[in-house]
Amino acid sequence: MAFCAPAAIAGPLDDLVKIEVLDGGATQSGTYRAALRLTLADGWKTYWRSPGDAGIPPSFSWRGSRNLGNIAITWPTPQVFSTSGMQTIGYVDQLTLPIEITPDTTGRPIRLKGRMELGICKDVCVPSELKFDHTLDLDADRNPSILAALAARPYSSAEAGVTAATCRLKPTRNGMQVEARISMPSTGGTEVAVIEPGSPDIWASHTASERHGNTLVATTELIHSSGEPYALDRSQIRITVLGRNHAVDIQGCTPG
Length: 256
Known about the structure:
It comes from Aliisedimentitalea scapharcae. With 256 residues, the protein is mostly beta strands.
């Protein structure tokens, strides 16, 4: 993967990006909502979980948290950027990242502590580490910013009218080619597909996509970090289609 070259920046990073934890209260299922809200300096951007041709993928550590049984992150639909012939995917100016927390023990305090490592870019790219430490207000009301970020998520396969998603696998010299064929209506404009392998040890190259009527064909090459042959679980493949009108999140594909 090609990454932005880090650059030294004069002055504190607080001038470029700040992080805060938002409270979102309890859900009907017994979980709790919160969010990490990043506020960036004017014109600066940060990256989606799959940053594209150049960028720094975000990572999280929850070390120091308390009463944290499970965490589910919802990524709002990102934007696609083109810079110097490279395609990147992310967010500009602000990102509210909803988190749904299942506590170990219901009714006990929940402490959300950790750090987020990310890249922020404008004319240069800066690797950043943001720390947070917040005890959730379990009685908080629903937070409009969190609800808006949840509403901005990609559509599910059912919501987008996906009728089939197949993946054809073919060995390559360095790894494996995946050709995904997705039967669904257009998402509008020039569609950008992203194929994620579902394993941190497998890297996905740029995904090429083209539409043929009601079928979107997306192709990428997957390479294992060890350079050795590997087995690929189609059920773990995640395909995101980003269009002008909406985005679609497709979980898994069948042989095709």
